[in-house]
UniProtKB/TrEMBL annotation:
<protein>
    <submittedName>
        <fullName>Oligosaccharide flippase family protein</fullName>
    </submittedName>
</protein>
<dbReference type="Pfam" id="PF01943">
    <property type="entry name" value="Polysacc_synt"/>
</dbReference>
<feature type="transmembrane region" description="Helical">
    <location>
        <begin position="151"/>
        <end position="171"/>
    </location>
</feature>
<feature type="transmembrane region" description="Helical">
    <location>
        <begin position="233"/>
        <end position="250"/>
    </location>
</feature>
<keyword id="KW-0812">Transmembrane</keyword>
<keyword id="KW-1003">Cell membrane</keyword>
<feature type="transmembrane region" description="Helical">
    <location>
        <begin position="77"/>
        <end position="99"/>
    </location>
</feature>
<keyword id="KW-0472">Membrane</keyword>
<dbReference type="GO" id="GO:0005886">
    <property type="term" value="C:plasma membrane"/>
</dbReference>
<feature type="transmembrane region" description="Helical">
    <location>
        <begin position="347"/>
        <end position="370"/>
    </location>
</feature>
<feature type="transmembrane region" description="Helical">
    <location>
        <begin position="119"/>
        <end position="139"/>
    </location>
</feature>
<feature type="transmembrane region" description="Helical">
    <location>
        <begin position="382"/>
        <end position="401"/>
    </location>
</feature>
<dbReference type="InterPro" id="IPR050833">
    <property type="entry name" value="Poly_Biosynth_Transport"/>
</dbReference>
<feature type="transmembrane region" description="Helical">
    <location>
        <begin position="270"/>
        <end position="292"/>
    </location>
</feature>
<feature type="transmembrane region" description="Helical">
    <location>
        <begin position="194"/>
        <end position="212"/>
    </location>
</feature>
<keyword id="KW-1133">Transmembrane helix</keyword>
<feature type="transmembrane region" description="Helical">
    <location>
        <begin position="441"/>
        <end position="459"/>
    </location>
</feature>
Length: 510
């Protein structure tokens, strides 16, 4: 597969992923407008735990599928991995449903707003189960290079989720007010969050149904010897994933509730809501990272069989970092515009964490790119060690900083952890699988992007808009655009030859 084909596939994967993330973009201000602060905090807490459960439910089998499909009989790998996930998902789902009472009546259940609402818990468990069962079918489409079908199914599930959100939260209340007794009644915020979980569950269910024709074509044969090899490869990835989630979502799930001073449950829910709402503004970087991973992971495994793949990996990293820097500036320089997304003025006070989280996600994206070395060399245990180190660091930094700096401490801890994770992975990887990354350029591009933001931030606070740094003032927007254009001009001058080789845009560059 060429880099041009990778770019083409990433466009399709990116479109479906962008639609998915834009769903969160569009639904978040919708939720902020109808949910109380505490209810939004409860929902944010629930969705912070779901990635942990997804890691357990899939236990690295998706990555193992990519790895072994290139070495073994593909149909055997597909059948073995699918049967493994099917049995484990059903077993874990039954176990979670049996534990419903203790979970929803725990402190965590109360913080998540599940106490007294067992149906909400059931929706969440089924949502996670449906997502786990579609992991291998989605991976199969990626491996076979079928991004159009991948995007179509992904978008269909998303549109279903949107439809039911609108139906339950907008149409049903109007029908009930008009005297229609058959529609569900929404009496308070808790009812509303329950229907949000139900909408997401139905979207995941539709996705699974759309995969049924593909699933029926699987050769249902289980190879125990192959399964043991796949499991040996995949199990360390659980530690990698779980420890990674400690950095990525545990701030909302556990660190903030535990380390914020005081015992006021409602106040903690509101702070989680404030932090989570502003966290969403970093989504433009995360959506690109996810789209890149979807297209790049199978590409990297295939490219490993070619001659001198390290040079290709280095080139991709450089282009990847350039895009991350542009996205960092696109959001951070225009926060006075992006605040419209938050709708409610209460959430504006949290916008100071957005540049920190954007930078954190830049480091995370680079780390994901770097991890190819231990996946190609079958040293997945190394990845587990790296993420365990940063998970411990995350615990220590959040324990130290949240009581002192509040939610800003959680954002700062996230950034530091991702930076350390990135550096350790790079240094370790160069020992076992050296890749000639353009390190001086990468450091220059990232450093200049951060410097550009801080120059603008200083000018905005001291000269352009000292009374309200997030005010929508023409002069602030003009200076932000001027600085963005200057950065783009510098990058273009440095990488003109590289851009000329790119698909789509290359033909316009002379």
């Amino acid at each position: 597969m060429s880099i041009k084909k990778l770019a083409g596939q990433t466009v399709y994967y990116g479109l479906s992923n962008i639609v998915s993330k834009l769903l969160n973009y569009f639904l978040t201000p919708f939720y902020l407008g109808i949910l109380s602060r505490a209810s939004f905090g409860e929902m944010s807490n629930v969705y912070a735990y779901i990635p942990f459960a997804n890691i357990v439910l899939t236990y690295g089998m998706e990555t193992a599928f990519f790895r072994f499909a290139k070495q073994e009989n593909k149909s055997h790998v597909l059948g073995t991995s699918t049967i493994s996930l099917l049995i484990s998902t059903i077993s874990i789902t039954i176990l979670l449903l049996l534990l419903r009472g203790p979970v929803i009546n725990s402190y965590t259940g109360e913080l998540a707003g599940l106490t007294g609402h067992p149906a909400f818990y059931t929706y969440i468990v089924l949502l996670m189960a449906f997502d786990a069962l579609t992991a291998i079918p989605f991976a199969q489409l990626r491996l076979e290079g079928r991004p159009v079908r991948y995007a179509a199914i992904r978008v269909a599930g998303i549109l279903t989720t949107i439809f039911f959100n609108i139906f339950f939260l907008v149409i049903c209340p109007k029908l009930a007010a008009a005297g229609h007794q058959w529609v569900p009644g929404l009496h308070n915020g808790s009812d509303q969050t329950g229907y949000i979980y139900l909408s997401n569950m139905l979207g995941s269910a539709v996705t699974l149904v759309l995969f049924l024709p593909q699933i029926r074509q699987i050769e249902w044969k289980f190879d125990p010897a192959l399964w043991k090899k796949m499991l040996h490869y995949a199990l360390p990835l659980i530690i990698v994933g779980m420890a990674g989630m400690v950095n990525e979502t545990f701030d909302r799930a556990w660190f903030l509730p535990q380390f914020l001073p005081g015992n006021n449950m409602e106040a903690k829910k509101e702070i989680i809501a404030l932090y989570s709402a502003n966290y969403k503004l970093a989504i433009l970087i995360t959506m690109f990272i996810q789209a890149f991973r979807l297209g790049a992971e199978p590409f990297f495994f295939k490219q490993a069989e070619s001659r001198d793949p390290q040079k290709v990996y280095a080139r991709i990293m450089k282009l990847f970092v350039v895009m991350l820097c542009f996205m960092f500036l696109f959001v951070s320089l225009y926060l006075n515009v992006w605040k419209i997304f938050l709708r409610v003025p209460f959430y504006y006070q949290g916008m100071r964490i957005v540049p920190v989280l954007l930078l954190a996600n830049m480091f995370l994206g680079i780390y994901y790119n770097l991890t190819i070395w231990f996946k190609l060399t079958d040293r997945t245990k190394t990845g587990a060690i790296i993420t365990l180190i940063t998970a411990v660091l995350a615990f220590l930094l959040n324990y130290w900083w949240i009581p002192v700096m509040g939610y800003y401490g959680a954002a700062l801890a996230t950034m530091v952890c991702y930076f350390v994770q990135m550096v350790v992975c790079y240094v370790w990887g160069q020992r076992y699988y050296p890749i000639p990354y353009h390190l001086p350029k990468l450091i220059t591009y990232i450093g200049l992007a951060v410097l550009t933001y801080y120059v603008f931030s200083w000018l905005n606070a001291k000269v352009l808009s000292p009374g309200d740094i997030y005010a929508m003032k023409p002069l602030s927007l003009a200076v932000a655009t001027l600085l963005f254009g200057a950065y783009a001009w510098f990058i273009f001058r440095m990488e003109k030859k590289e851009f000329a080789r790119m698909p789509f845009i290359g033909k316009y560059i002379k």
